[in-house]
Design a protein that fits this description.
This protein has 760 residues and is an alpha/beta fold. Strand 39, helix 14 (550-562) and strand 40 (566-568) form a beta-alpha-beta unit. The longest helix is centred in the last third of the chain and has 16 residues, at 741-756.
């Protein structure tokens, strides 16, 4: 790097660190320790060793404690933000006005790569901004970057759900800024890099580059990440500037059962008969008494652990006192200075605030922690072994998530098989923040979405009590599934609510019956009656095979019979078979078999004849459907109308298909003849690969960015189009379309092979 180029380094260390509470209750986030060294000290040591000699630390929360650390270094000064200014605003507040380059380092991460190379890359490429990136197998907790073949950033996505993950390249919060970029940051006002500066620069056409340095980067923004970072340091995978710790062999000779990979500070006292395993970390000035069992625990400095106590996969803050014969279970976190008295058993996931004191009798009547977890799109499950108060807590957390204004009451629409079930009653009792809860019986999702538009519900809930668990499906008031960001927020609220013993009162919500099925059926009937011409289904004879969807089949039969259609009890000549199953609706007439997509295509192509002005575009609607609907298809978000269900509701599609037959006097074969040849194939592909990297590779191999809306990525291949959406687990959903189902299958298999090779 050119020695004449003036470089200032700014370390952002002003955040509140709320996600690290209770570890940050009485100290700022940059002063939490990885092994025996604070995050801030590790950063400053790296910068000083690399020759950066003009370093400013931006502070706000607990700024006096940060200043004490900075005073240990000759060329480091502190600059306090009187009010939070955001990431970019904090850097501008620290800028010396002379340096040509500013290196920005986030103060809540540990890294062992060379930042000189990032500055050199920035100068060589003449970038306006250079972002140092890292690769993460699970990028959903970070800001994700999309780059082109030249390493230029083309798009950002902050904490995407898996359905929107398009790369495994994440933003580390380490930037190199040119003076031009610094001049674009306003003085003395809140301004962020990712929300404000970067989008503005990209709109101007400025170059934002990404560089991936050799080495590892570990964020410590949350408790899970803090725990993982300590374990990585204990294993020696990431290098932090701490001592090597005590020799394992010597400890074993002293009567201590210590496994390889654990870290025990030279200044820690360990009694006889102690077992230390699972990459545990025991920091300086700790005292662990005889016969203790430490397995995968992080024990911060100056902590005392009494005789016979067990610590399992937990985090213990600084200056904690734990009595004899205690058990601190998996997932527990104990804040600095807390006291755990003799004989206390902390159940899984228990959080103890800083300076708190826990007595044995305090936890005897506590209900179980961690009862709920999200398993799929907006679907949470709870074992029936859990206390009813846990279910009430979750219901309250859901209400808090959807409550935008404390002065505005909520309205909810709830569907379930039986209101009398004790678990359902517990959930309804927890919804006392709602002014009105509308009960929709066992209405399905499509019916609820429609009814929501009529009653103006803020959110919808479908409850399903199985033999072993309660399943809760959450839907937004506009009819969409909640995303993973909302799920995380609900779980945070849920954990907070469980700790508040004064949360629950006598339920005040008014529960009103609402005839959702009847409203839905009436709306579909009105839609058909709007079609010009006499609607007479009397010549159409059907047999309904309800399979697993009896409720939907019964609604369809009532609508069909309203127009004179004849429903038979079994198959016979001249009778069409209608099959309802979880994958959609199928219509069979002799040798002809039409799936829901084929009928939908016919309806969308003839919307004019059905007197439908416009329909709302569903997410990931196949290209062929969009082209057939043409200008009638709208993508704007609005209150859901029943005609919008043509894009995703089998009942509406089937009824409108029959209406089209009567209006045009054409049979199934004639309607299909007027459609282009197409086939749609949907598959779930399971592969144990880095999903973010697979998405990035697919994007660069096949991406034709005609349409980046909706979920996943849209790819254009020579034989057709395909949408790939990563799932929450290991798999991908692949939706391929081509001239035939066989060709679509081949495209899906080709994408599957490319996914499998993505990590090679």
């Amino acid at each position: 790097m050119d020695k004449k180029v003036k470089v200032q380094t700014v370390v952002l260390a002003g955040g509140f660190g709320t996600r690290l509470s209770p570890l940050t209750d009485i100290k700022p986030k940059p002063l939490v320790k990885i092994l025996d060294v604070t995050v801030l000290e590790n950063i400053l040591e790296n910068l000083v060793c690399e020759g950066f000699d003009n370093i400013t630390v931006s502070t706000h929360y607990k700024w006096e404690m940060i200043r004490q650390t900075c005073e240990k270094y000759k060329n480091v000064r502190c600059k306090r933000e009187m009010e939070p200014l955001g990431t970019a605003g904090g850097v501008k507040n620290c800028y010396d006005g002379e340096s040509e380059i500013v290196l920005v380092v986030s103060g809540d991460a540990v890294f062992d790569f060379n930042l000189r190379s990032a500055v050199e890359h920035h100068l060589a490429h003449k970038s306006t901004v250079t972002i140092v990136g890292a690769r993460k197998e699970n990028p959903t907790e970070y800001g994700v970057m999309l780059t082109d073949e030249n390493g230029t950033v083309t798009a950002f996505c902050e904490k995407p759900s898996w359905k929107n993950v398009k790369s495994d390249a994440v933003n580390t919060g380490i930037y190199v800024l040119s003076k031009y970029a610094l001049d674009r940051i306003p003085d003395n006002m809140q301004y962020d890099f990712s929300k404000n500066l970067f989008p503005s620069l990209m709109k101007e056409g400025m170059i934002i580059s990404a560089v991936f340095c050799d080495g590892l980067w570990c964020d410590v923004g949350s408790l899970d990440e803090y725990y993982d970072c300590n374990i990585l340091a204990s294993k020696g995978i990431i290098d932090v500037r701490s001592s090597a710790g005590r020799d394992i062999e010597k400890m074993c000779n002293e009567g201590i059962h210590a496994q390889n990979g654990v870290y025990v500070s030279e200044g820690a006292f360990i009694g006889r008969g102690v077992s230390i395993s699972g990459f545990s970390v025991i920091c300086d000035k700790c005292a662990v008494s005889d016969e203790c069992d430490i397995d995968g625990a992080i024990v911060s400095e100056n902590t005392f652990v009494g005789k016979g106590t067990g610590l399992v996969s937990c985090i213990v803050g600084e200056g904690v006192r734990i009595g004899e014969n205690c058990i601190v279970s998996k997932g527990c976190v104990i804040g600095d200075g807390a006291v755990i008295e003799d004989g206390v058993v902390l159940e899984e996931g228990r959080v103890v605030s800083a300076l708190d004191r826990i007595k044995k009798e305090d936890i005897l009547n506590r209900f179980k922690n961690g009862g709920f977890s999200f398993v799929d799109d907006g679907v949470a499950v709870c074992s029936k072994d859990n206390n009813f108060a846990d279910i009430m807590s979750f219901a309250r957390a859901v209400c808090l998530k959807f409550k935008n204004n404390e002065f505005v009451k909520l309205t909810a629409l709830v569907a379930c098989q039986s209101r009398d079930d004790l678990y359902v009653r517990s959930f309804l009792a927890g919804m006392d923040m709602c002014s009105t809860v509308f009960y929709a019986g066992n209405a399905d999702k499509e019916m609820m979405r429609f009814a929501s538009g009529i009653i103006g519900a803020d959110f919808l809930v479908r409850l399903d009590c199985t033999e072993r668990m309660l399943k809760v499906e959450l839907i937004t008031g506009s009819g969409g599934s909640i995303d993973e960001t909302a799920e995380r927020e609900i779980m945070k609220l849920y954990n907070a609510v469980r700790e508040d013993e004064n949360t629950f009162k006598v339920p005040t919500s008014e529960i009103c019956e609402v005839p959702v099925k009847e409203l839905y059926e009436a709306a579909v009937i009105r839609l058909v009656k709007n079609v010009p011409g006499h609607q007479d289904f009397s010549q159409i004879k059907i047999y309904v095979n309800c399979c697993e969807e009896k409720g939907r089949a019964d609604s369809f039969k009532r609508i069909f019979e309203n127009f004179g259609g004849k429903v038979f009890a079994g198959k016979s000549d001249g009778v069409k078979e209608v099959c309802f199953n979880t994958s959609g609706v199928v219509l069979k007439d002799g040798e002809m078999c039409l799936d829901e997509n084929q009928m939908r295509a016919a309806v969308l192509k003839r919307l004019d004849e059905l007197c439908v002005d416009e329909v709302y575009c569903a997410k990931n609607l196949p290209y062929v459907m969009k082209s057939l609907a043409g200008k009638r298809l709208k993508s704007n978000v609005r209150q859901r109308l029943i005609q919008d269900s043509i894009c995703d509701d089998g009942i509406v599609v089937l009824v409108m298909f029959f209406a089209l037959m009567t209006v045009t006097n054409e049979n199934e074969a004639q309607l299909m003849e007027k459609l282009p040849s197409f086939g749609i194939y949907t598959d779930e592909y399971i592969a144990d690969v880095n999903r973010g990297r697979a998405m990035e590779r697919l994007s660069k191999l096949y991406h034709d960015s005609k349409d980046d809306s909706g979920e996943g990525i849209k790819l254009t291949l020579s034989g057709g189009n395909v949408t790939v959406v990563p799932s929450r687990a290991k798999g991908f959903k692949i939706i391929a379309e081509a001239q035939s189902v066989e060709a679509a299958k081949e495209i899906a298999f080709k994408i599957g092979r490319a996914i499998k090779e993505s990590d090679i």
